[in-house]
Amino acid sequence: MGSADDTFLARVRTAHRRVFRSLTVPNYRRFFTGHAVSVIGTWMQRVAQDWLVLELTDSPVALGISTALQFLPTLMFGLWGGVLVDRLDRRRTIMATQAASAILAAALAVLVLGNLVQLWMVYALALGLGLVTVLDVPARQAFVTEMVSPENYVNAQALNSAVHNAGRLVGPAIAGVLIATVDVGAAFAVNALSFVAVLLGLARMNPRELHRVPALPRAKGQARQSLRYVWEHPELRACLFLVAVVALLGQNFRVVFPLLARETFGGGAEIYGWLTSALGVGAVLGALASAARVDATAWSLLLWTFAFAGVNVAVAAAPALGLAMAAVVALGIANICFNTLARTLLQIRADPTMQGRVIALHSLVFLGSTPLGAPLTGWVCEQWGARAGLLLAGIPAGLAALAVLPWLRKVRALREE
């Protein structure tokens, strides 16, 4: 009996080391710790901003517009943001973008707590945050390859996803309590303070231990070069196509979930917080499972696309809140496994000198599609309800996976020749 117990404990320790292996790297550990604090505040702000817009307008379309404005700059300038990331020091770029995000959150807190806020102000600050995102997202994603060695890329990306979605679990729940007991502006204030943690983590890093990529020299056509590069690599092309479809129609949770909470299940901010937290529970579970992987393949991405499609339909069909929340947990697992595999696949298959631009293309289709998808989803929900918005997320994702299947079969056939 003792031998069996020892074997089990040894396996648990081995699994633990495999899942959390990137945390043995000091620079990554400092980044991870600061990001873990900051991301809670970020999710608090997202929930608070959505609820603030609904309070000001009572309009799903206005909610979709506020979300769209935050991601419109990525749609317009994302490619050039990737070029800048390949040219600039990534660590210093992230420090600048995080400081700017803190200032924008503080400004919104002052406006709300001072009873000065108007809808156009929320729109303007959402647009400002979107401009920061143009650099922040590709810089943070590409920075992973400077902190850890190639064999840990999948692990580090998965751990980033885990902490991001742990924030999705904790942040909305805290925001719901603050909105109900204090004021919606309190969530914005807490988010502004949370950026101190990630800035300290970045400042405490040892730059000499980073695996820096040589800076990209200035030249014409570097943004277009990334488009040609991805088109010439079928796996990258298939990956970005799936991301485009899923992101455009499938990941507008901030539009669908408030309406699902209020209109479908007759609740308020607390139900919205629960649904978002349920998505976070699934996402954390999915991220931890992804962290044990050592590679990412296009076939795995395809399977998770089918899973994402199926669980969206399951949430839409759920007759009661409890069943819906259980299905949302499954949705969180499928969503994070899809997103983690897509980002990692792009990094593993891309040349290091192209990583900033390839990740910027991912941001372009992942975040930049929101200005189109969020208002469309809002309109569909306004016409036919939140369940229709979930069907809009699931059915096209399944069709996209079927469309990509012949591409990947052709790639595999060529490799086997």
Automatic annotation (TrEMBL):
Membrane topology: Multi-pass membrane protein
Top-level taxon of the source organism: Bacteria
PROSITE patterns on file: MFS
Keyword Manganese among UniProt keywords: no
Pfam families on file: MFS_3
GO molecular function: transmembrane transporter activity
Entry-linked InterPro entries: MFS_dom, MFS_trans_sf, TM_effector
Keywords on record: Cell membrane, Membrane, Transmembrane, Transmembrane helix, Transport
Transmembrane segments: 61-81, 102-126, 173-202, 238-259, 271-291, 298-318, 324-346, 358-376, 388-408
The keyword Iron is assigned to this record: no
Location in the cell: Cell membrane
Any one GO CC term of the record: plasma membrane
Domain Major facilitator superfamily (MFS) profile: 22-412
Protein name: MFS transporter
Origin species: Nonomuraea cypriaca
Taxon lineage: Bacteria, Bacillati, Actinomycetota, Actinomycetes, Streptosporangiales
